[in-house]
Amino acid sequence: MAKQTKSAVNLVNFGRSESATLLRVEDLKLYFRTTKGVVQAVDGVSFELGRRRSATVLGESGCGKTTLARAILRLLPRNVHTFSGKIVLDGVDLMPMNDEWFRKEIRWRKISFVPQAAMNALNPVLRVGHQIAEPLVVHHGVSQDAAFKRAVEAAKLVGLPEDFLSRYAFELSGGMRQRAIIAMALLTNPELIILDEPTSALDVLTQANIMNTLKKIKREFEMSYILITHDIATSSELADEVIVMYAGHIVEHSPAARFFKAPLHPYAQKLMASVPTLREDKELEFIPGQPPSLLNPPKGCRFAPRCPKRFERCAEEPPLFSLDGVSVVKCWLFAR
Amino acid sequence: MQQNGVLLSAKDLHTWYELRKFGFIHAGYVRALDGVSFDLRYGEALTIVGESGSGKTTLLKTVLGLAPPTKGTLVFAGQPVTAKNLSWLRRHVGYVQQDPYGALPPFMNVRRILLEPMLINKVGQPAEREARIREVLEEVRLLPVEDFLLKFPHMLSGGQQQRLVIARAMVLRPQLIVADEPVSMLDASVRVEILDLMRRVQRAHNLGVIYITHDLSTVRYFSERVFIMYAAKVVEKADVREIVRNHLHPYTRALLAAIPDPDHENALHFKEVPPGEPPSLVRPPEGCRFHPRCVHKIPGLCEREVPPEFEPVPGHFVACWLYR
Amino acid sequence: MNLWARLQELRRYPSALVGLAAVGLLILMSVYAVVRYPYSEAIRLWRAGELTWLEYPRNAAPRWFNWFGADLPETISVTHERAKALHAEDLGGGVRRRTLSFSCDFLNGGGFPKELALFYEATFTRTPPQAVLTWRTPDGREIPIGTQVLRGGGRYIISADAALVKRLGGRPPHEALFAHPAEPGKPLRGRYELLVDLFTFEPQSEAQLKLIVYGQVHGWAGTDNLRRDLSIALLWGAPIAMVFGMSAALILTLWYLFISAVATWYGGWVDALVDRLTELRMILPLLPILIMVGMFWSRSLWIMLAVLILYGVIGGSKNYRAMYLQTRSLPYVEAARAYGAGNFRIIVRYLVPRFLPLTIPAFINAIPGYVFLEASLAVLGLGDPVLPTWGKVIQEASGFLYMGSSYYYWILLPAALLFLTGVGFAMVGIALDRIFNPRLRAI
What we know:
The complex is a heterotrimer.
Chain A (H helix, E strand, L loop, with lengths): L1 H6 L13 E14 L2 E14 L3 E5 L6 H9 L6 E10 L2 E2 L5 H8 L4 E4 L13 H13 L3 H14 L16 H13 L5 E5 L7 H18 L2 E6 L2 H7 L2 E6 L2 E7 H6 L4 H8 L47 E3 L3 E3 L7
Parallel strand pairs in A: 3-8, 3-9, 6-7, 7-8
Antiparallel strand pairs in A: 1-2, 1-4, 4-5, 9-10, 10-12, 11-12
Chain B lengths: L5 E16 L3 E17 L3 E5 L6 H9 L6 E6 L2 E2 L5 H7 E4 L13 H11 L5 H14 L5 H5 L8 H13 L5 E5 L7 H18 L2 E6 L5 H4 L2 E6 L2 E7 H6 L4 H9 L51 E4 L2 E3 L6
Parallel strand pairs in B: 3-8, 3-9, 6-7, 7-8
Antiparallel strand pairs in B: 1-2, 1-4, 4-5, 9-10, 10-12, 11-12
Chain C lengths: L2 H6 L5 H23 L2 H9 L2 H4 L22 E3 L5 E9 L2 E12 L9 E8 L6 E7 L5 E8 L3 E5 L4 H6 L5 H4 L13 E11 L5 E8 L16 H37 L1 H16 L2 H11 L4 H12 L5 H10 L3 H8 L4 H40 L7 H9 L9 H29 L7
Antiparallel strand pairs in C: 1-9, 2-3, 3-8, 4-7, 4-9, 5-6, 5-8
């Protein structure tokens, strides 16, 4: 199974030179040991993200997208069975680094993370301003005052009024708390921010506000995002590129303009067809069946059992095929 | 039971919660529902859209009989609802909740879960109850029925759990079903199945349905009619297609503008969002409650007088002074 | 949700298996104790004075001391039936003379007998029989002991006979009679005989004799200063500890389960009241209260248990309250209200079952605490006056311990059993905690 994906390392070039690549992931595998067996949560994932580009990782629950984020940030639980592959940031492979070095230099310095439901993770006994400043103080040994000043700047960036910094977390609304978390992530001027479902628990207007903030930051700071979500509509707000995951694999990686008009992979197509739209009157389709268990994933294409376009070749796992040098699809329909 | 009459009628309905300090000192009221009026006919489906704090959840609870109304009247199937006949109301209104797993007691199996409402309301004989359980499981397509009877909630998928919740809501043959974000916690591909099921069930039994959601884009798949709520009041009532074409209330406009469709152009534009946050329900603003955030505010009027309902287009009601 | 399946998970924890073995052992002991010595019998034996235990050695060590090379003797009892009649003579006038040989094989080289006594039962009308006693050692020496008048029933404590001591050169008889001639510090091993010349003076007069060579070890638990076989108390300590601990733990666990559900469900002043009562109870010191009960009212174990339970039902438990507070907003509880469930039904069918599994570790973990409580009261002298418990044994032993005494088994055995109880239940309880409370699990 591993052999085929390795050959797809002939990865897609989005029309820029090598040095414009910020992050390159090669054959990343993360398996967990559980009482029921080994869960192959991320099973040979490869992609590239250019500098100043944003990618959305799209997928339903259990596809491995959150695990992918944790793998990149090395936020691993204790029952890891396999963790292999290459994660190259700015030309440097992060995998061989030891944990201490990674923690100091990479995590929350070069790469920041806004986890799911992060707004519930604010420490209730710290004032928001101090909380935001915490990474600098703890991580980088910056003095409390200097850190607080940076926190104020970061808060302004995200549209959090300064007087909110002296309040406690429970005094802030959901949207405000999420902004505080984003400010925390921005604090060290990272090159890449990974956000996991940043707006799913928020109201519509608040979501729009947060998205505006993220767009503004992206423009002003030329920061790269990886946005993880299951919500196709939200993903279209920030994405330059879309990565679709299914059952631990990447099944499509396309530029946003192409993806939202016409997704290539059958799963992506069905997903798009199952999402209600406000402005367009369309018949919704649903995908029968369920994603496969990652405990003992089936051989061959993992979407084949539910795919309307499957044929005999699908019994063998397809590699990532490149289309027009622009998109990458893991489907035999695109074999040359 | 009239087939086409009015099933549920609310007139100037208010539901306030009392705030107490230290458990017994009165400290004001949370005016969670502050003057709502509407009629729902048998077999009609209605969606109520609002953000958190809009009062939609309180409206749901009032209709379910979980929160007694403070002022105004609520008439269900011809009978006025008072604090005394709440248990009667609860029996005739089915409840579908947002979190399918949380809605099911983890220590009861499928059969037991469906039996409970019948046991509590002393409905039918034991043989009739078993038959009803099978009947309702077939209707929600949890087949084969025998396989599912002894399963526990954690053995079911999200979609199956929600079907069970729907089955439970239907087991007492209610005339009205209230659903609180019934698909928001399900995967995208499963949502359609459940929405389909609810529509089918509604048509088969001529049920009245009230949906509650904050996601306008799903409304057309729920129902034909939609109410928009803001700060404990209904601000706009219309048919779904009409509202999408012709959004009148400034809040509705803001909502619609904020909802994305999957379109990559979204990444290139900023959205217009009204500044500020929804108001506190303990001390709501005077006059129109949206006025602090409204770009079309008419000075001297909007902040002083509560706007009544206007009908600029037949069947389309707006509570906004712009349409006087 | 299968309770049995979850309990099976205990197999994955080695510590739990050890704990279960300990608890199983205690339960076996309890069953055996009740079967072997029924309640009234056990009480009778334990409360009986010296007379019942007269044939047991005083402060004997457990038999298994000999496994460690001690080679201490056990009690040898030679009854009248086992004595050999050597000679019988009719001296006329109703006087008879019989010579009996009471022989015993003394084979332990590690210590002398503790005591030496001759028990007799004589029947006569006016003239009591008399016995002339001679001691024959394995190497053939004959030592005259003396003449005893057998007046009715009684015992002649050879080892306490002061005149005999003087005659034997100042050494206590139970040592001197057994001493090795060459090495006086060690006993001579072999067959010893007590030759009894029994003279009866009436035709119907009779006498029955029994020689007891008291050993230094007895049974698996030894004996105490009242010669009582400690194994009775140690065995019976188990069922008493189990009953006391388990009933208190069970009643109170169930009570907290229920009262916390009721209080948090109704909220408002009910919850506040129960919470204040809980705090009141947490402030009241239990042990001093029980001490006062013991001193001023009654020391009966059952009274203590009743007071303990009365104390425990004041209020609820902060732990359970915290758990139940979460449940009030549970969707399925709200759904139940929506289809018409009343308060009582919700509490009993929706709230309590959720937490019932969690009470299992709580129950198990609470047991040792109560067992130790009872033992503490006993050690303080406030134990039940009638029942033999481990704490009682420790308390009695503590009066006899001093530097240099060798009666440490007397305290160590009950202490070890208490320790076993505590550790056994704790290990099972900890493993159960990990099973039933997922948050404590290390994946």
